[in-house]
Design goal:
Elements (H helix, E strand, L loop, with lengths): L10 H6 L6 H16 L17 H10 L16 E2 L2 E2 H33 L8 H25 L4 H23 L3 H4 L2 H11 L4 H8 L1 H29 L2 H34 L7 H30 L1 H7 L13 H9 L2 H31 L3 H33 L1 H24 L1 H10 L4 H32 L4 H34 L6 H36 L1
Antiparallel strand pairs: 1-2
Helix pairs in contact: 2-3, 4-10, 4-11, 4-12, 4-16, 5-9, 5-10, 5-20, 6-10, 6-12, 8-9, 10-20, 11-12, 11-16, 11-19, 14-20, 15-17, 15-19, 15-20, 15-21, 16-17, 16-19, 17-19, 17-21
């Protein structure tokens, strides 16, 4: 009998039939146990032992123990116990990943709300500074980070790369609250910028405000990069490394459940600190006190992220790597930055993914800047502005939590393609409502008055609803869809593709939306006059987004089938 062609057996099965075997059969079964242990991915195992002819008595014994199948869980033992029908090793991966995602999103919500308050309410600044920041500061820094990340990925391990990227963020946010902000008056060239504004005129107020409040703008950019780097590249890169496509379909949508509980808690934290600032006596720097508390929580959250990552690297990653089939790695020189971008640009799959990210950034930015300018008009006081943003984050977390529960059903019922189309559809519908209210606010004034609303406050509320539902669909559907699309790719394409798409394309989309607004303002004289054209641009961008999502769906399914056939 040819032993190597039988199905892999489980260790438990071998032990159960140990009494039936002779010493000869035990010596033959030994390599079979090694095969069972190496078959951790639940795949059909390659021939690890040369065919051996054995006695009929031994062949009967082997046939008796060759029936059980190995579970299809990456890194799981063949006879591993299950909890709620899911292998315990899967829980060992999912629970720490969920904890990491909770802390990352908790930090991101605090940073996102704080950065807006800092730059919008800064002296000589306003919401008009945001397009200039995203175009001329955030995008160049994102490109610079990607160049550095690409070079580091060629020389550092995944674990080293993670800590090299995240530790500078943690250090900066702590230093900003306790060092940079207290000495801001010494660091900001206020007098110089005031004279420059008098000389150049009000049309250059946005760029001059960036120079005048450069430490605030640096905080803004670092907070933006936290979302691109830590959330998209570091966390999802780790998650894609240790999970299978089947596990991702089941659990990626549920990651957001814990993450959006973090949104609710962090929104409440921002609200509480806003109320503390409002109740402090005169002469006390309430905003500085608030920053110390908020950034203190960010630093603690960052340290927890590092600790959980260290746990995964010690307990989970070695098992996953040991379970993967051994493949001979082709020896080749590391690609340069330029070669990496050419390599990625040559892939239609990567191009589709990139367009999805860029399209989201442009679409949300076409509405968001106008909305934030309305918020400042309604809430000129920083405390009130910050408190409103805290309520906004809490509402976003609650709505997203609900959509996360629904998203699992959507993935199971309709698949990746339908889930990927929901976010652009939601953004288009809510964007049309927002632009319609802004364009037809005059005729709607009497109706709004009966509801106790002014056109300004109504625009603030509708813009908030638009952002809440758009972000909820992004967190619950768009992000899981995007991350699932990386899983079937090879390691090099996945690593460099994520760095290019998530770090460059995300701010590129926001900067693209900002550039469109800048050109419209210059061409038509004001943001209000360009509103109808912005609505038409939104319609066109979302249409192309839907087309790219459909094309990527076809390629994703084909790549999955190709990977399945190889297994």
């Amino acid at each position: 009998m040819v032993l190597a062609t039988t199905a892999p057996s489980t260790i438990g099965g071998m032990r159960a039939n140990a009494r039936m075997t002779t010493r000869c059969s035990a010596s033959v079964a030994a390599p079979r146990i090694g095969m069972a242990q190496s078959g951790l991915m639940g795949q059909r195992m390659p021939s690890l032992v040369k065919p051996q002819v054995v006695q009929p008595r031994v062949a009967t014994t082997v046939k008796a123990v060759a029936q059980p199948s190995v579970p299809a869980v990456l890194g799981a033992a063949p006879d591993e116990k299950k909890f709620l029908g899911i292998p315990t090793f899967t829980w060992q991966k999912i629970i720490p990943l969920g904890m990491m995602f909770f802390c990352i999103l908790f930090n991101y919500t605090i940073l996102r709300d704080t950065k807006d308050v800092l730059v919008v309410t800064a002296p000589g600044s306003g919401a008009e500074i945001i397009p200039f920041l995203k175009t001329w500061v955030n995008l160049p820094m994102a490109i610079g980070f990607t160049v550095l990340y690409t070079k580091l990925s060629n020389v550092l391990s995944n674990e080293q790369l993670f800590y090299t990227c995240i530790i500078p963020f943690i250090a900066f946010f702590g230093a900003f609250a306790f060092v940079l902000y207290p000495i801001r008056d010494m660091l900001h060239p206020t007098a110089f910028c005031e004279n420059l504004l008098d000389t150049m005129g009000a049309r250059f107020a946005g760029p001059i405000a960036i120079v005048r409040n450069w430490t605030y703008c640096l905080f803004y950019v670092m907070a933006e990069l936290w979302g691109s780097v830590v959330v998209s590249v570091l966390f999802w890169g780790l998650a894609n490394q240790i999970t299978t496509v089947d596990e991702a379909k089941q659990f990626y949508p549920l990651f957001g459940l814990g993450a959006n509980v973090a949104l609710i808690f962090s929104g409440r934290a921002v609200k509480i600190f806003s109320q503390i600032r409002a109740n402090l006596p005169e002469g006390v720097d309430g905003w500085g006190l608030s920053l110390k508390g908020l950034m203190g929580m960010v630093v603690i959250g960052g340290l927890i992220i590092c600790a959980v990552h260290a746990y995964l690297q010690k307990t989970v990653v070695p098992k996953v790597q040991g379970s993967m089939p051994k493949k001979e790695k082709k020896k080749k020189e590391p690609m340069s930055v330029g070669e990496s971008f050419k390599f990625l640009a040559a892939s239609p799959y990567i191009r589709d993914l990139a367009f999805l990210v860029v399209a989201y950034g442009i679409s949300i930015n076409l509405v968001e800047v106008t909305w934030k300018s309305k918020i400042k008009e309604q809430f000129p006081n920083p405390n009130d502005y910050s408190a409103f943003m805290g309520d906004f984050s809490t509402a976003t977390g609650a709505v997203t939590f609900t959509m996360m529960i629904v998203s699992r059903w959507i993935f199971n019922k309709f698949g990746w393609g339908v889930a990927a189309l929901i976010t652009p559809s939601v953004l288009l519908a809510t964007g049309i409502i927002f632009f319609s209210l802004v364009l037809f606010s005059g005729p709607l004034t009497p109706t709004l008055a009966t509801l106790g609303l002014t056109p300004l406050f109504a625009a603030v509320l509708v813009g908030a609803a638009q952002n809440i539902f758009s972000k909820a669909s992004k967190y619950s559907l768009f992000d899981p869809c995007k991350e699932m699309a990386y899983i079937p790719l090879d390691d090099e394409t996945r690593t460099k593709g994520k760095a290019a798409i998530d770090v460059i394309c995300n701010p590129l989309g926001k900067s693209g939306g900002a550039l469109i607004q800048q050109f419209m303002i210059i061409g038509f004289g004001s943001l209000a006059a360009s509103t109808p054209y912005l609505g038409l641009i939104l319609l066109g961008i979302v249409g192309l987004w839907i087309f790219a999502a459909k094309d990527l769906d076809v390629r994703f399914e084909a790549l999955q089938k190709e990977g399945g056939s190889e297994e």
